[in-house]
Amino acid sequence: xxxxxxxxxCRKRATPPQTGLSVAARRENLRGAFEVIKPDVVxxxxxxxxxxxxxxxxxxxACSRALKRAGAAQVMGLTxxxxxxxxxxxxxxxxxxxxxxxxxxxx
Length: 107
Description:
- This protein is α+β, with helices and mostly antiparallel strands.
- It has one domain.
- Helix content is 29%, strand content 22%.
- The chain contains four helices and four strands, in the order βαβαβαβα.
- A two-stranded antiparallel ribbon has the order 1-2. The protein has a two-stranded parallel sheet with strand order 3-4.
- The radius of gyration is 19 Å and the shape is globular.
């Protein structure tokens, strides 16, 4: 039966906010920021990380890297929301009177 364990991973150093940083800067900002404090719990197991919002994936990647170093067999990330500039600007689309911004009529 799957087991839920919390408080296995912690931030070992404070980092500046990620807002406004490039992808590369976000990754560098989080390099070595997390550590596994219960390696016996994660060793050889499949781990599911939960995050509220994913923008670039830098936080999930940094946490995953720490868990893999501690011996996790597999790490999967689940998020509630994805912040990305690839999503359309809905206000602009409404003013275009199109369904998808490709010039197709919304009627």
